[in-house]
Amino acid sequence: MNTNNNKLQITLALVTALFVDSTFAQDNKESEPKENVKKTTTELVERLQIIGHSDKLRKEAGSATLISEVELEKFKFDDINRILYNVPGVNIREEDGYGLRPNIGFRGATPERSKKITVMEDGILIGPAPYSAPAAYYFPMMSKMTALEVFKGPAAIKYGPNTVAGALNMTTRQVPDSAEGMIDLASGSDGLFKSKMYFGDTINNFGYLVEGIHLQADGFKELDNGANTGFNKNDLMTKFQYNLSRNGLTQLVELKLSLATEKSDETYLGLSDLDFSENPNRRYLASQNDLMDWDHKQVQLTHFIAAERFDITTRVYRNEFTRSWNKINGFKGGLFNRDLQEILKNPEDEVNALFYEVLTGERDTIQEYEKIVLGDNYREYYSQGIQSELQASYSVLGLEHKFNVGVRIHQDQINRKHTEDTFLMRDAQLVSDGSSTVSTTTNLEKTDATALFLKDTISLNDLEITLGVRGEFFDSLYQNQAVDKENDWLKKETSLWLPSISGFYTFNDNAGLLFGIHEGFVPTSPQESPLIEIENSINYEFGGRFNNGNTKAELIVFYNDIKNLKEGCSFSAAASCGDSLDEEFNGGEVDVYGVEFSASRNYRLANGWNAPVSFVYTYTTSEFKNDFHSDFPMWGTIEQGDHLPYLPQNQVTVNVGLLSNNWEMGVIARYIDEMQEASGDNVLLSDVVIESYTVFDFSATYDLDTYGLVYFKVDNLLDNQVIVSRRPYGARPSKPQQFQLGYQYRF
Q: What pTM was estimated for this model as a whole?
């Protein structure tokens, strides 16, 4: 371990900070735990829970949405995209149909690889390198989550580093108070198979949990040679808990260990529009060797202590992520040079047709410039740190205060070791041309960061005012490790404070108003010149909440005044990066504003039947405030008033359920408005749009009482396949109609 790592290890002895971990109690326990364990677990869950489950009116300021275990179990989605369509204010660019590498944004933030939102698992940053390289090429398996929370506006000020858009927190299963377990087996279309098992117990003061998941599919895309286009994912998690409560103090120590792997035959290569219209699931032969192979390891140690007026939660964590994605990058070029995006945009062009015939295997490679280049983007990441959070309540001059302060000391790093190999197309097979592997990118980016937040919620009769501030202080290092560029390096320092103010006014037990203002921030990468400005914004929201126990509703109007929009050029974001690969660009002032509305109600029908219904609507629009020209392939020549790409103006999701003692059925209908592929003129996909589309999903469960339950689900019920994106290289399809039949047994 290097010197900086040793410094971090020493710092772990300090009292520092944990952001709130959203953990949730398990329902319907078959037996009661021992009294001291039950008390500890209850206090831990109540204090760490971010959003309440009760039927009372929620009074936290800021937009916050919970998707509980009950809702996750209803449709048993393994795809984070399908889950988040139930949250207002979320914008998504789909890619592979399974959600393997999601592209998620909130309130107009660029969805590319979810790099502008803060992604957490159990309250801990879970991205491979959240400061140095936030693009989320690793994303946790959704099958192991028991709840999700989305925070936008001032509610996200305590979750950094990215605070412009918001934060996503995913919660894993907690150690149960008494012996319980579950087995879940399912099989479905396109070779889908899922097996899931967990078991846990608490004996006296010691508790444990073991959970394992295997998920695989042959894939719905069809390589012209019939090869597999699917994936194989595994996740193993263990938790060990010990109750240290004594002398009036509640204490708990928990160790979490997890290991996850994935091998997926995924590619960045899409289709021409004409080929898509003939068979949206086709894959060209040039992508036959494309393979993503990664593994992720996590160690997390938690200490919780609580007294009557305060509690402190401290966590130490380390995540390691290694990935190798061998995929087609393009052609060698020379006499003729064509980008893959350009070829598939217009394959009828005389020159493009030559490359297209090689891509599809219709013709063997003849010329030197027709050789196919496959790149292995091998990367090693780590992320580690310690964070601690104090929550306390006190009274000053007759006013009640809820004080919340946290500190995090964090370090992360990415080490890129990219290579390229050259292949020939021969008789519909890729064959090496015999040349040596070429090293293309060998660099390191590293960040040492200290972050803190302070919040004070003051009760003034029916009004609660929350004053907050977040501090971000970090040093970053970039070093090009290529032999011929030994002196190519950059060091930067960043220091800033981000204030916020929010409030909630209670009209009565059922209704109230909320408002908030906060400053948002997205850092630049360590390798970018100090001339590239950080993304910075002032964000406003105003709305109301209603909850009478049976009907719940929330309406929020938001306005994000972005002082400087920042984007980066990558293979996944824009294929035509050329010499600008990994470069970041300033876009100046941009306004994003809209409305978020969600409502749910349960209708009681005859003979014990119930019909829960929910409705989610998002209206979002945006506009650049200045004229400029950019080399960024998703912008080009921008005129004032141009809109952001991949931001639908209207999104609607409707859930309709029907349930009785044994049956539970549900249908989700979601509508996604059209989206632009590029903002301005004079770039490859200018004036190209993704058409609006509607998708229906269906699920049904029959409870066999003591014998478990059987479930059946259909994704994309009407088999409506559409283009969801033309990036990175060509048209990409949504998931086709897929069936799944499963059995679940709890014990």
A: 0.91
